[in-house]
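Data availability (excerpt). The following record was deposited with the supplementary files.
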Amino acid sequence: MSECEELEVTKTEDWNWNKEYNVQLPEAESREYLPDVSHGDLVLVESTRSGTCHAIFGKVDTEETDHVDDGQVGIGLDLRQAIGVPKGGRVRVVDTPRPEDWRRQLGDVLGRRPILCRVRKAVHPDIGFDVCRLSRSAMDDLGVTPGDHVVVESTEDVDSLKALPLRDETVETKQKQLEQHPSRYPDPAEALRLDRITGTDVDIPSIYLDAERREELGLGEQATVDPDREGEAGSETSNPALAAGVCQPVKVSRNSASSFLRSLNDNTVPVVAGLLGTVVVFKGYLTLQQEVAAVGVGVVLIVLSVTYRVRTAVA
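Predicted structure:
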């Protein structure tokens, strides 16, 4: 059974982890709860509203956290927006393992910083495909271009999806759906009462996923309140969309392997030209094996470039 403690939310100060979302706790010696949690560990932070759980993983920071009193947890504004809890509210901090995935681990090694996004329902023509829609500004923050793959991480699973830019007609369609069918297409600002946090209805960036992608990420499970934990464990949401993972927060980061292929594609022409030029200029000084090897490397680069262009082709 996971260790869990309900704590009062306060602000963060002097972040220790620049590439992660900090969860600031008092030092282990000065607290009686979560005894196995130490500096640098990952913990799940979750809140419950109207029978729906909203959760995200953060990295524990216990250094220079004198502003965090016993019984409190310091979390930043973006994370508070993600799970819909204001300062002074209550959250559960859970010591539980995060799902493992080599793509995310590679990104961790390369120092990428994920952004928090709010899950929304996808619309035609994305339904049934391994794609997601993001705003141009979100793609710029991630450092990806249309057709690149991004890593989408829930508290239950991790998936790699092709990122496509959000279109004006999609925004218009979603607005009509909100107005005409508010129960099927819930507004995150209302569902989480975001005005309590910032005084406005401004939210974290949206990511548009179809039902199959939401199911693969386990967003329905993420939205389900664990009956073994405190809070509104006995209640369940009456909104099917919220129960299926709509309005859940996820972490989105660039797929480092996809970024490497893009960089390789961008440099294929000069590299191949350089290899062929070397073979021509130094033909009398190279052995047959060296010439074959140079040409072989060029062919491999061309194949990888073509593969990348096919994979990232935007319909």
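Summary of structural features: Residues 83 and 181 are 24 Å apart (CA to CA).
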